[in-house]
Amino acid sequence: MGIWNVQDGQASWLVQKILKAVKHLQEAGFTEADMESMEKYNVSRVYMQIRGRMEKVGWRSLVWKNVRAPKWLFILYLAVMGRLATKDRLAKWGIVQIQTCHLCQQENEDHDHLFFKCSYAAEVWTSILKWKGINKNTKNWMEEIQWASKCMKGQNGTTMVYRMALENTVYCIWLERNARIFQLKKTTSSILVKHIIQEIHGRGSRYAKVATRLDDLNNYP
Ligand SMILES: [Zn+2]
Asked: Domain total for the chain?
């Protein structure tokens, strides 16, 4: 029996889930054609397919135990798994030929470049680290994740703000990349940094531990 035959309340709940998943898939860079070509329409299977198996990896706590914005986490999952529809992957599927990054226009786009080797993304991430009072060199993508998993675990205000900053920075860089490609809109790195900080304040102020830490971060870098 297909999902559309399920009765009343359950059906509308499934439809809501599907619509939400489609929205997230689109944010992740999947097109309608990609979705149509997926063999299984079961949302949980699609979700598992995208996020992959992750039970035994060290960064699990990074994405689960957090003051979470689901859309930030979803994009972070895909970025950690290397599953965003970056140009290197699209080229392998024969969807694009030119792989130049839209943020810097200098190098080819892949996960490691976007987070945060790209000069635009590096400016954003370095400013966010400066805002948090962290002075460290930007590492490659998996090293960034491993460092955060090791050094920024736990539930105190500092670690929670760090994880929010990482999630929202990845999310905003991905959206900026999409806006440049699909809407021909550009935001400068300094405006994007302000936006990221405002979002963290907006979301974090609801949680006592985070709000206390954010009181000390009431400025722009
Ligand atoms: Zn770039």
From this structure: 2
